[in-house]
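Q: What changes when 6-O-phosphono-beta-D-glucopyranose is included in the input?
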Amino acid sequence: MNPAETPAPADTTLTRPADGCVMVIFGASGDLTKRKLIPALINLARDSLLGREFAVIGFATRDYTTETFRKQLAEDIATFSPAPVDEALWQWLAGRIHYVRGSVEDPQAYQVLAATVNEVVTQHGGAGNLFHYLAVAPKFFGTIVEQLDAAGLARETDSRWCRVIIEKPFGHDLESARALTAEIGRVLDERQIYRIDHYLGKETVQNLMVFRFGNGIFEPIWDRRYIDHVQITAAETVGVEQRGGYYDTSGALRDMVPNHLFQLLSLTALEPPISFDANAVRDEQAKVLHAIQPLSPEDVLSKTVRGQYGAGSSGGSPAAGYRAEPNVPQGSNTETYIALKLTIDNWRWADVPFYLRTGKRMAKRCTEIAIQFKRAPFMLFRKAGALSPTQNRLVIRIQPNEGISLTFGAKIPGTVMRQGEVHMDFSYVEQFGSHPHTGYERLLYDCMVGDQTLFQRADMVEAGWQVIQPLLDVWKALPPRNFPNYAAGSWGPKEADELLARDGRAWGKMPQ
Ligand code: BG6
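A: The predicted holo structure follows.
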């Protein structure tokens, strides 16, 4: 089936098929390809959003041929595609998937890749635009970009574009992030680099901008005069699963904070951009990150909490502690939980704390941004008896059950004047129906049409590392003495509750 024959795009913000291109996936035999990338490409094809000349080349060391790679993917999509896949559509895409076996460190393999790119372009047509997706360990990012250049596969010409998607983590601290920027910058221009953060592919995250700037009533109260504080939570019930090798060198801080949580924070706090152009939006996000007040070593001790899960339970079954997970050293001091308090030094947010927390093996899976508004300035109903004034709370639920809810006070019916808390709730699924997708469709499409809005710029990545570098330094100098300090299946260490209690606040109740 030709995508041109498929129904009109379901997502009306994406209206035209992307430019034809060859997408080269490095690390194509890994999880990301089968779980996210191929299912996302199928959804794009279904919505007529892939160019007619689109083709994929998988590049990896595993012993596949083009035929066996296609066969493997056909089995995988049955498991991982979020919606049933139309056979004719799959056949159309499968016929455009090719495979090159090779090591990313072997210059010869890039010669084979270059020859295959030429064959694929001859076979499927198009200008030979190139879209490289680096789904490999971060230590290979620099090497791949250099080798691509040596094989003539990295530079743009007047007739062909060439873009590179780089998965996180981009560096493991400030210095290494700067070094990596310099290394790939010797070959690629910033406009060719797409640093992906899959949180930006989430519908509710993108909706934050519409919610704030597409409505007239929220922006006037979106500041320190009305907002008491902000809580950002990304809680997972899973442990480190099979990723202990990677995770133990990273930890919750590096894995989640400078990337995913800072995306949520910057979109919550940014000033209205002058347009929806990539750089206009990213300029405002970068300003927020630069305005985060740097943490002194004393601040690190008083405003951050780290934790590691011990044995406990998950989904009603016993769960092992982090140190007993596969590929995790027995006495590991790597944190699987972090909570921190940040402030943003600008007119809009001065003195409004942003509390962030993320952890593995928590009681519930829940990612949300909670805006806690200030109390009413005086309690009109106090004399009427036993009233606790409601603190209005706006919760933007990113997952699961994407939606927005507002808590406010209402009179409880009856002769006595009593006030209770009620919720106004908007649910994406109830309103718009379910729209099974992987979260990568938008990001892949944007790369193919050259829109960098939802990708991180070098200065944003650097600003993120700048904020967390003091934590990395202090934590390294003072290894934790009390790990493990929370049970699997709980809400994290008690110190995280104390962090807010010291300010007279508490973490919001999570959905049951
Ligand atoms: C990844 C982290 O970037 O994000 C994982 O490396 C984490 O450790 C995941 O589990 C969380 O993503 P999501 O979409 O499930 O919130």
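Observations recorded in class: Residues 236, 255, 367 surround 6-O-phosphono-beta-D-glucopyranose (CB under 6 Å).
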